[in-house]
Design brief:
- The structure is a single chain.
- By secondary structure, this protein is an all-alpha fold.
- The chain has a two-stranded antiparallel ribbon with strand order 1-2.
- The protein is built from twelve helices and two strands.
- Helices cover 74% and strands 2% of the residues.
Length: 286
């Protein structure tokens, strides 16, 4: 049973970047971004290609972050410069990223089993992933407390007022969406390293996973500040993975994983409609 908890904890931390990225776009920027489905797989593919070519894992993850940020910039430019709806802009980018990721990987799947990451056990992974996620929370909390962070939050809360105070909507959205997709791509790389392979379809349903983590975390923690909200999102990611692991442990087939995920998210949304703390205002923007 302990291995189940530890495995869910590690997976939740590996997916934490995805949850934080979704939080930035949906809660901070109020932008429905489907790019995450493509940038997650792109990050995993980028990291896998580089690590199999003897590139240091840290540099491979940095490259994954940059590739995801670039994907986010494309979505932002399609939306701000071409006037395409945010939803469709994300769909266009995510669709194109499938082919780009497949070209990058040159095959549909890259195995990473047997590569040495210097982490020999789940306990080692738990420590390493905990340090990475704590660092992400601290950096994001600091960023969102700066003038830039306040400008991004203003854009999400009241774009008209933000522009009236000299905040550039186009630049703000581009920076925010790029940052969010960089985090998502980082999660893709970490998940590929942890599970031992990268697959071109690994990003399918990523938005749902991230949204589920955000909703579960907000429902339980009732965050009142930015650091608390970020920590709640990470906790939601861990709990969401734990719920999936328990469902599989009870005998449900792995092929039903997407159905389980959808039902769990539906349950979380239903609880939110019952005015559980954290969702009573339909999603508090901090």
């Amino acid at each position: 049973m302990f291995s189940l908890w530890l495995g869910a904890y590690n997976q939740g931390l590996a997916y934490a970047g995805l949850a934080l990225g979704v939080y930035l776009t949906l809660r901070v920027l109020n932008f429905a971004d489907i790019t995450v489905d493509g940038s997650f797989a792109l990050g995993g593919g980028m990291a896998a290609v580089l690590i199999t070519n003897n590139i240091n894992p840290a540099f491979a993850l940095i490259a994954a972050v940059l590739s995801g940020a670039l994907a986010g910039c494309v979505t932002a430019l399609i939306h701000t410069r071409l006037g395409v709806n945010d939803l469709f802009a994300g769909i266009l980018t995510s669709t194109g990223l499938y082919s780009i990721t497949l070209r990058l990987m040159d095959r549909s799947n890259i195995p990473l089993i047997g590569l040495d990451f210097g982490l020999d056990s789940d306990a080692d992974w738990a420590l390493a992933l905990s340090l990475v996620v704590l660092g992400l929370i601290a950096l994001l909390a600091l960023l969102l407390a700066t003038d830039l962070g306040l400008a991004l939050r203003a854009l999400g809360n009241n774009p008209t007022m933000a522009r009236a105070n000299g905040v550039s909507g186009a630049k703000g959205l581009t920076i925010g969406i790029a940052l969010a997709n960089g985090l998502v791509a980082l999660a893709g790389g970490l998940v590929a390293f942890y599970q031992g392979f990268a697959d071109v379809t690994m990003g399918l349903g990523s938005l749902i996973l991230g949204l589920g983590a955000v909703i579960v975390g907000e429902s339980i923690c009732r965050p009142r500040t930015i650091p608390m909200a970020l920590a709640a999102v990470v906790l939601g990611s861990i709990l969401f993975r734990l719920m999936i692991a328990i469902a599989l442990q009870l005998g449900l087939e792995p092929v039903d994983l997407k159905l389980i995920t959808a039902l769990l998210l539906l349950g979380a949304l239903t609880l939110g409609r019952l005015r559980l703390p954290g969702l009573a205002d339909g999603g508090r923007r901090l």
